[in-house]
């Protein structure tokens, strides 16, 4: 299975990472609905899971793939640890904050609610929680993981993170 995935990554990296991201975003939502919210299978919100899959595959997967390539090519300092620190800082100040804004706004639009209200109630607390998790994850990712596998690492850690995002998005507050 890993060999097949690596072949797909080599031949169609953007598509492979986008499909993988869509599946894992949807999985994070299923975890939120069934494991955290305990709504039960009969009351599972398939539209919500679909929105998460759509965002993961159409927005986050391509954006993260392109972003990691950009960081790899453009942020290279003389010292490896300084390079990693600069990549993490850039990732967390530019990409994380922008992605969270896009995620919450697009979810609100797809749900037919106010993006402003969603952002006012959830953006800052979610960004603060982001900064509690992702700088460490990204430092490890940038130091030890080859470029082609960084989105996959983020996607697996994102199972828990997307569960949280799906939950906070469905609450509209917290």
Instruction: Work out the radius of gyration.
Output: 16 Å
* Number of helical regions: 6
Name the helix and strand elements from N-terminus to C-terminus, one letter apiece: HHHHHH
Tell me the number of strands: 0
Q: What global shape is seen?
A: globular
Distance between the termini: 39 Å
Based on secondary structure, the structural category is mainly alpha
* Largest sheet descriptor: none
Content of β-strand: under 5%
Taking all residues together, what is the mean pLDDT?
93
Low-confidence stretches: none
Residue share in helix: over 70%
Protein model, in words:
This protein has helices at 2-11, 13-36, 46-74, 80-111, 115-144, 147-171. The protein is mainly α. The N and C termini lie far apart (39 Å). The relative contact order is 0.16. The mean pLDDT is 93.
